[in-house]
Amino acid sequence: MVECSTDEIADAIRAYDGVTRKRAIGEIIESLRLVTPNVPVSFGDDAALIQNGDSGLLLAADGIWSRLLDADPYWAGFCAVLVNVHDIAAMGGTPLAIVDILSVKDSDVCHEVLRGMYEASAKFCVPVVGGHLHPDAEMNVIDVAILGSVNPEYAIFSHTAGEGDRIVAAIDLEGRIHPSCALNWDSATLRTAEEVRAQIRVMHTLGTDKLVSAGKDISNPGVIGTLGMLLETSRKGASVCLDDIPRPDLDAIGITFDHWVRMYPGMGFVVTVPAESVDRVLELFSGVGMAAADIGVVTDSQKLIIRHGDAETTVFDLKKQGIMGIPTDN
Amino acid sequence: MVECSTDEIADAIRAYDGVTRKRAIGEIIESLRLVTPNVPVSFGDDAALIQNGDSGLLLAADGIWSRLLDADPYWAGFCAVLVNVHDIAAMGGTPLAIVDILSVKDSDVCHEVLRGMYEASAKFCVPVVGGHLHPDAEMNVIDVAILGSVNPEYAIFSHTAGEGDRIVAAIDLEGRIHPSCALNWDSATLRTAEEVRAQIRVMHTLGTDKLVSAGKDISNPGVIGTLGMLLETSRKGASVCLDDIPRPDLDAIGITFDHWVRMYPGMGFVVTVPAESVDRVLELFSGVGMAAADIGVVTDSQKLIIRHGDAETTVFDLKKQGIMGIPTDN
Description:
The first copy, chain A, has helices at residues 6-15, 17-20, 25-32, 66-71, 73-90, 107-124, 193-208, 222-234, 250-253, 257-260, 278-287; strands spanning 48-52, 55-63, 94-103, 128-134, 141-150, 166-171, 176-177, 185-186, 214-217, 237-241, 268-273, 291-299, 303-308, 311-317.
C-alpha cells in the first residue's frame, strides 16, 4: 500500500540528493564532447558504445559515493564492482574486465574495500585487471571503470524509448536493507554466484531477443529517478502507477513507500517494452527470481507523472528541467 | 655532463616519492588476483591485455597526483589524458576511448581540468566517452581509464626483457620545464597534433615490426625508476651509463642531472631491444623528433646499476626489494 500522497512522494524524489547530484553532468558533457566516427553512443547511456571493426565495445566508469565508503568500506568495494557490472548489463552487454583507482588515506579502509571488490569480482566472474593507487591521499576514494562487449545490433540504449511502450521495473526482492546503509537494498551478497550471474544475463537476453526498446539499471536515484534519466535521454515522458512498483513487505521491514522508491535496489532494471513483449519480459525476470511488473506507459509529454488512485503528480517536467541537463542535440 | 656522483643520484632516485609511492601496488595485486582465462597479462604492465575472440583489448587506469592538481588544474587535466594515452602506446596499442571520474570540490578547478582534458583529447584524437561525477567531494580528484586495441601477437609487454638486450631511452627534448611543476617536462602542449600522434604511433610500429623485447612509457618515477619497474616485472637487472641518457641543455635550463632523471618527461619511452634492432629503433624515434639513445644493457643480476666514468652504484636490488613489490609468481 502507498500511504503517502503522490505530491509527497514527488517532493521526496525531487529533493533526494541521489537525484539532485546528477545535475552537473550536462555541463561536463558540453565541455568534453569530441565528435569521432567510432563512438555512436556515449554520454547519457550507462556505458559508451565504441565500434571496433565489426564488434562493439562498452566502456563505463562509476565512482562510489564517499557517504557509502564512510559507512561500510567492504560494502562500498562490493558495490564498486556491482554498479559497474550493472552498467554493462544494462546495455545488453557482457562484462569483460575492471580497473580500479584507489585513493587511500587509511589502510584499514583500503583492505576492506579490496576485500569487497574481490568478493564481487569473483561472484560475477569479472576480473580486476589493473588500476592505479594513490597511497597518500587526503581522503578515501574508489573509482572503477569497466570494459564489456556487445553486438551493436543487440545493444540496449537509454535514448530509444518509444511513445506507447510499456514500462517494466524488475527488482530482486529477496534481500534486506543493508545494515550499514538505509538507502541500499542488498540482494547480491545473499544470492549465490550462479543466481546473480543469471540475473545479469537476463538483460543480454532481452537485447538479443529484441524484447525491449530501452533500458537502464536502477542506480542511486532509485526507480523513479532512474526512469526519469532514461526519459530525459529519450526525450519522452511517462505515466507511472505507484501501486504497481515491485516492493517487499514494507510494514515488515519498517520503511515507508517514499523510502523504498528512493532506494538503490542492488539488482534492479527499468526497461521500456513494446506491448506485445511485456509478458515475455516479465517471465524472463521472474525466471531469475526478480519481481517484475508493468508499472506504466511511455508518453510524448516529456513529463514523468506518478499516479495513485485518482491522484497524480508531475515529478519531473523534463522539458523545463532535466535531471542531468544533457544538451538537446546530443 | 653528470655533475653528481652515482651514489648521490642513486640516493635521489630511491628517495623520490614518485618512486616510493609505487610500493603498495604489490599488496593490492595480491588482494584482487582472480584467475580468468581471457586475461593473459594484467598487473605490472602499463595496461591489461584482454583476449576478446581473436582480437586484443587493452584496459588501463591512471589517477592524477593531487600535488599536480593543486599546482595547475589545466595541466593536470591534460596529463590525465596524456598518461593514459601513453599507457596504451607503451603496449604497442591504439587508444580508442577514455572515461573520466571527477571528484569535484571546487567548480573553478573542475572547469580548468575539463579544459585540459578536452585539449589533450582533441590533440591525440581519443574521445572522452563518459564517466562519473562526484559533485560534492571533499577534495578534487581526477581518475581516468582508457580502452585500446592491440593485435596480441604484436603487443609490447613489461615482463619480457631478455638478458643481453640493449636498453633504449627516447624522450622528446623539444620542450620546457612545465611552469607549474618543476618535475614535469612538457613537450606535448607545444607540439602539433600531427607531431604528438606520430610520436605515439612509433610504439605501435616497434610492436608490429617486432623490434623490441619489452617497453614502458616513462612516468612519474622518471627514466631510471620506470626502467626499474620494467626490470622488476621481467625479473632482470641492468647496467646503465648515465652519460648516455638523453637530456636537454641542463645548464641552459638551470637544473641538475639528478633533477632531470627524476622528471616525468611528458613524452618518453624506455624499451629493451635485441642488439641487431637498435639502429632501426633509434632511427624510428629520431624520425618523430625524439632524442633516443642506447643507455645500457639488460643483465640477469636483478640489480639496476648506474655507471658514470669508473664509478658505479646499485640503485635497486630488485631481488631484495622491488619497487612495486609484485608477487613473484605473477
